[in-house]
From TrEMBL:
Source organism: Paenirhodobacter enshiensis
Cross-referenced CDD domains: AAT_like
Name by which UniProt lists this protein: Aminotransferase
Group of enzyme by EC: transferase
Keyword DNA-binding: no
GO biological process: amino acid metabolic process
Cofactor: pyridoxal 5'-phosphate
Record-annotated Aminotransferase class I/classII large domain positions: 32-392
A single GO molecular function term of this UniProt record: pyridoxal phosphate binding
Reaction(s) this enzyme catalyzes, per UniProt: L-aspartate + 2-oxoglutarate = oxaloacetate + L-glutamate
Keywords linked to the UniProt accession: Aminotransferase, Pyridoxal phosphate, Transferase
Subunit structure of this chain's protein: Homodimer.
Domain of life: Bacteria
Length: 400
């Protein structure tokens, strides 16, 4: 009898975490490494939020809470959805989990049966397909490309839906590409979904507040209210408020689904950290200037990185519309040989040789379902990004 489960054999570890860990190990051994693999703002959590957490500790708010969120936080989330997204939820339609990842996983575990398909646009966040597999479903893909801004069309979506499709996962702005759908582009997709009443929509809005050049944000249930009864709108405080380590994600959706997700959570982690929940209340209800200030910094860094990468031979880097990632193509580097003799047969070989030879950690495109590319997170200092672009250019200039 095998000890490990067959389900576990279907999935692989997160590539972003694996590369980040390797970069840390290289740093610990004395190597000069610039890690651009983790999707984590380099800013500190705002002081008002930290003080709210300290108050919660001092007031003894350190006990178990309701499984899927304290009432104060659920109400704050309802108010946030109404204020920023035009979505109307009651607290019974809200769930809070230990990060957005748990919320997504709970939804999939609560709904998927063997044979159910989950449609995922590529490039995609590395965890989507493996979470589907762990939940017993089958991930299927519809591919965007650089020519379409890494977005999919209504025609592609229509063609990809099958009688087995249970969920469509939508992520805008996108991790890894930074692609952000306009309201009109999103309306074209929701028009397709209206014709398929058995397909549910899982909208991952985690990068909602990181939208550049004056663009306005829109989410599927907002653009097409008729989809609200089969849409789970997921968000969190990690990216918008630099609270990655606090681990708070949340979602709004139909009460039947929310209750099913709470049942899953009650038998896995139970409640998220009580202290983190009170901090999240302050994040959602307190001063919001941090978001505006950080957005300006990220847009400047985006422009710096795009210009730096487009100066590298063999790399083409489009300008993303949101998030804090770029997803350049390395098609012009494939088939060449690095200065240390490594044949660049694919984007994984490119990323590996770049890390070994120049000490720059990026995530190869195959991990996100679209090659030949790599992802850079520019959620780090201007100085580190400038130096990283210089090293990447040296690496590319050394290819022959």
């Amino acid at each position: 009898m095998a000890f490990l489960s067959d389900t576990l054999a279907r999935v692989k570890p997160s590539s972003t975490i694996a590369i980040s860990n390797k970069a840390r190990e290289m740093k610990a051994s004395g190597r000069d490494v610039i890690a651009l693999s983790a999707g984590e703002p380099d800013f500190d959590t705002p002081d008002t939020i930290k003080r709210a957490a300290i108050r919660a500790i001092e007031e003894g708010k350190t006990k178990y809470t309701a499984v899927d969120g304290i009432p104060e936080l659920k109400q704050a989330i309802c108010d946030k959805f109404a204020r920023e997204n035009g979505l109307s939820y009651t607290p019974s339609q809200i769930t809070v989990g230990t990060g957005g990842k748990q919320v997504l996983y709970n939804a999939l575990v609560a709904t998927l049966n063997p044979g159910d398909e989950v449609l995922i646009p590529a490039p995609y966040w590395v965890s989507y397909p493996d979470m589907v597999l762990l939940a017993g479903g089958t991930p299927t893909f519809v591919e965007g490309n650089m020519q379409t801004g890494y977005k999919i069309s209504a025609e592609q979506l229509e063609a990809a839906i099958t009688p087995k499709t249970k969920w469509f996962i939508f992520n805008s702005p996108s991790n890894p590409s930074g692609a952000a759908y306009s309201r009109d582009e999103l309306k074209a997709l929701t028009d397709v979904l209206l014709r398929h009443p058995d397909v549910w929509v899982l909208s991952d809005d985690m990068y909602e507040h990181l939208l550049f050049d004056g663009r306005e944000y829109a989410t599927p249930a907002q653009v097409e209210p008729a989809l609200a009864s089969r849409t789970l709108t997921v968000n969190g405080v990690s990216k918008a408020y630099a609270m990655t380590g606090w681990r708070i994600g949340y979602a709004g959706g139909p009460e039947t689904l929310i209750k099913a997700m709470a049942k899953v959570q009650s038998q896995s982690t139970s409640n998220p950290s009580s202290i983190s929940q009170y901090a999240a209340v302050e994040a959602l209800t307190g001063p919001q200037d941090y978001i505006h200030d950080s957005l300006a910094v990220f847009q400047r860094r985006r422009d710096l990185v795009v210009a730096g990468l487009n100066a590298c031979p063999g790399i083409t880097c489009p300008t993303p519309e949101g998030a804090f990632y770029v997803y350049p193509s390395v098609a012009g580097c494939i088939g060449k040989t690095s200065a240390s003799g490594v044949k660049i047969v694919n984007d994984e070989a490119f990323a590996s040789a770049l890390l070994e030879e120049q000490g720059v950690a990026v995530v190869f495109g195959a991990a996100f379902g679209l090659s030949p590319n790599f992802r850079i997170s520019y959620a780090t200092s201007d100085a580190a990004l400038t130096e990283a672009c210089r090293r990447i250019r040296l690496f590319c200039e050394g290819l022959n």
